[in-house]
Amino acid sequence: MPKLGMEPIRRSALVEATISEIGERGTLDVTVSQIAKRAGMSSGLAHHYFGSKEQMFAAAMRHILTLYGAEVRGALAMAKSPRERIEAIIRASFGVAQFRPEMVSAWLNFYVQAQKSEDARRLLHIYQRRVRSNLHHAFRQIAGEEALTLTRGLAAMIDGLYIRQALRADLMSPGAAVDVLMHYLDTSLAKSTPR
Amino acid sequence: MPKLGMEPIRRSALVEATISEIGERGTLDVTVSQIAKRAGMSSGLAHHYFGSKEQMFAAAMRHILTLYGAEVRGALAMAKSPRERIEAIIRASFGVAQFRPEMVSAWLNFYVQAQKSEDARRLLHIYQRRVRSNLHHAFRQIAGEEALTLTRGLAAMIDGLYIRQALRADLMSPGAAVDVLMHYLDTSLAKSTPR
Amino acid sequence: MPKLGMEPIRRSALVEATISEIGERGTLDVTVSQIAKRAGMSSGLAHHYFGSKEQMFAAAMRHILTLYGAEVRGALAMAKSPRERIEAIIRASFGVAQFRPEMVSAWLNFYVQAQKSEDARRLLHIYQRRVRSNLHHAFRQIAGEEALTLTRGLAAMIDGLYIRQALRADLMSPGAAVDVLMHYLDTSLAKSTPR
Amino acid sequence: MPKLGMEPIRRSALVEATISEIGERGTLDVTVSQIAKRAGMSSGLAHHYFGSKEQMFAAAMRHILTLYGAEVRGALAMAKSPRERIEAIIRASFGVAQFRPEMVSAWLNFYVQAQKSEDARRLLHIYQRRVRSNLHHAFRQIAGEEALTLTRGLAAMIDGLYIRQALRADLMSPGAAVDVLMHYLDTSLAKSTPR
DNA sequence: AATGAATGAGCCTTCATTCAT
DNA sequence: AATGAATGAAGGCTCATTCAT
C-alpha cells in the first residue's frame, strides 16, 4: 500500500507554495516547477493533483479569499452595533494574517488577473459583494442617505491602503492603516449624526 | 531613401499600441508581435526602435505617468487655495483622459509590475511622491496635525476608486468617484476647520 | 494472504482490455492507465505483470493471432479437398469472432506497428506465412502454375477486405466479404479447371 | 528585406520531410523536431509555417493523396474503353512514385490514423470514393450485375497488395502486383463475357 | 498481491530576439 | 528604414516506470 491520504497534504502545500512564490516574486509569471520545488515535489506531481497551472492558481486565490472571508465572519460575529460591524470589517482586512506582504502581493496579482480571467473575476466579485453588502447595510442604519457614498468611500480606502502595501513603498503598519480608516469613519459619521 | 523623422512617429505609435493592447487584454501578457501589428509595423522594427520588450513597456508606463503629471500640473496651476489644490488633484485623477477603461487597465498592470521591476517601481514612486507631497502640503495648511492622516486617506481612496475601475465591476462614472472624494474632503475638513 | 492463481486472471484481463482499448480508440496511443483501469486494476499492477507497455502490446497481439490461428486450424480440420481448405481459410478470416470492428481495428494497429517493431513483425510473419503456405499448397493442387498468382491475389483480397473494415467506411457484412472472395475463387478456378 | 518567398519552399520541404520521416520510421510517432531537422530547419520554424503538428500531418496526407489523384487522373485520360479505365487505375496505383516503400508506409500510417481523426477520414474517403466510383462505372459497362462484387474485389485486392508492401515482407515488385490484379481482371471478365 | 505516490524525460508550442537582405 | 526569416530557450503537460508501504 502506498502512503495514504497524501492528496490533501500535497494540495495544501502547493496552494501555500503558489501564494508564497507569487507573493515573493510579485508576479503571476511563476512556473509550475518553481512552485512544485518550493512545495517539495516534482512538477509532475503538481499536475497530478491539480490538473493544470490554472487550477492551481484558482485554488490559491480561493484560499486567500476563504481566509479573508473567515476573518471577516469571525470579526462580525462579535460586533454588537452597526458601527462595530464596520470596524470589524476594517480590522479583519488588516489583521496580521491578511497584511503580510507576501499575501498582499499575491492578492494584488489575482486582483489584476480578474481583468482577464472570467473565473477569477467571478470569485473576486462574490467576496467583494459580500463585504460591500455588509458595509452598506451597516451604514444605512447610522448614516441614512449618505450610506452609499460612505460605503464606496470606505471600501475604496480599504482597497487603496491594502494595495499600496504590495508596492512596498510608503510602508505603513496595519495599525496606521486602521487609524486612517477610523479617522474617516469618525469624521464622516460625526457629520451625519447631529451634534 | 530613409524617410526622415520616422523615429518619433514610430516610437509614439508603438507606445500607444502598447497601452491599448495591454489595456484591452487586461494583462501584460501581450506579445511584441501583437503590439507591432497594432502599430502597423513588423515586430523586428519594434525591436529596432526600443531594443527590447521591457523598454517598450517602460516607455509606455512613462507615457501614462507623463500624461497624468501634465493633467495634475495643469489643474494645480489654476488653484488658488490649499483646498482648491486638493480638489485639482482629485479632478485631474478622474479627468476623462485618465479614466478611460483601457488606460486604467494599463495603469493597473504597470502598477503591479512595479513589484517586480525596479525601474517601474522607481518611476511610479517619483510620481506618487510628487502628488503625495502636493496633497500633504495643502492639508498641512488647512488640517493641522491631521494632515498626514488625511493625505494617506485621500490618496488611498483615489487609488481604490481608480483601480476598481479596472475590474469593470461596480462601475462608477468619474463624476461619482469625484463625489465620493469630495464628500470625504468635506466631512474631514469640516471637523478640523469649522466653517 | 496472496490469492493463488491471480496471475493468469490478471494477465488475461489486461490483454483483453488492451485490445478493447486500442480497438475502441482506433490507435495505439492508449496509456497504461487507461488499459489498467478498464481491466479493473492499477497501472502499477499492470507493470508488475507485464514489465512494460511494449510487452503488454506484444501479448495482446499474440492473443489476436492465436485466436485467428485457432479459428483457421479448426476450419481446416474439417476440410476434405483443396478447394474446401481454401474456403475454410476464407471463412475463418471472416468468422464473427474475427470480424468485430474492435478486433479488426486492434489488428490493423498491430499490423502497422509491425513496421516499427521487430518483435511484432516476426510474430505477424509467422502467422501470415502459415496461412499463405496453406493457401499455396491447396492452390497448387487445383490451379497448377497459376497457384502463386492466385495465392497472392486471394491473400491480398482477404487483407484488403479485412482492413477496410477498420475504417468503418463502405461497411460490409462478413457474409458480403465472403461472397466477394468466393466469386473470385469461382471465376479464377473455373478458368483453370473447367468443371 | 528578408529572403522573400520562402514559405512555399519551406512548406514543401516540411511536407516531404514529414512523409520521409514517417515512412522511414514506420510510425506517426515522430517529433516535430525530427521532421524539422530533416527539412533543415528549426522546430520553431515548422510551427511558424504550419501552426501545429497536426496540420503538418494533414498537409502531408493531402500531398500523398494529391499525387495519387493526379496519377490516376493522368492514366484515365488516356484510357479508351471501360477495361482500359480499370487498367489505368491499377497501373496508377502501382506507379513507381506511389510504390516507394517510404510512401507506402506513410500512406498506411495515415490510413490507420483515419480511424481516429475525423479530418483524416474525410480526406481519405474523398479519394477512395472517387476511385471506387470510377471502377464501379467501368465494371457496370462490361460486367453487368456482377459490377459491385468485382469493384469490391478489385479495390480490396489493390489495397491488400499495396498495404502489404509496408510490412516489407513478401516483397513484390510493382510489376508482380499488377500481374496479380490483371489476372483477376482477366478471369473474372472472361466469365462474365459469354464464351 | 496491490496501490497510489512520485519522478523525470520528452514533446509541443510560444515568443523575444537576431539577422540577412 | 524595414521586413519576414529564423533560432532556441523555456514552459506546460503527459506518461511510462519505479517505489514505499
UniProtKB/TrEMBL annotation, chains A, B, C, D:
Pfam families reported for this sequence: TetR_C_6, TetR_N
GO MF annotations in UniProt: DNA-binding transcription factor activity; transcription cis-regulatory region binding
Gene3D superfamilies (alphabetical): Tetracycline Repressor, domain 2
Pathway: Amine and polyamine biosynthesis; betaine biosynthesis via choline pathway [regulation]
A GO biological-process term: glycine betaine biosynthetic process from choline
Keyword Repressor belongs to the record: yes
Ranges of residues in domain HTH tetR-type: 8-68
UniProt xrefs under SUPFAM superfamilies: Homeodomain-like (SSF46689), Tetracyclin repressor-like, C-terminal domain (SSF48498)
Record keywords: DNA-binding, Repressor, Transcription, Transcription regulation
Function recorded in the entry: Repressor involved in the biosynthesis of the osmoprotectant glycine betaine. It represses transcription of the choline transporter BetT and the genes of BetAB involved in the synthesis of glycine betaine.
Name of this protein: Transcriptional regulator BetI, TetR family
Native organism: hydrothermal vent metagenome
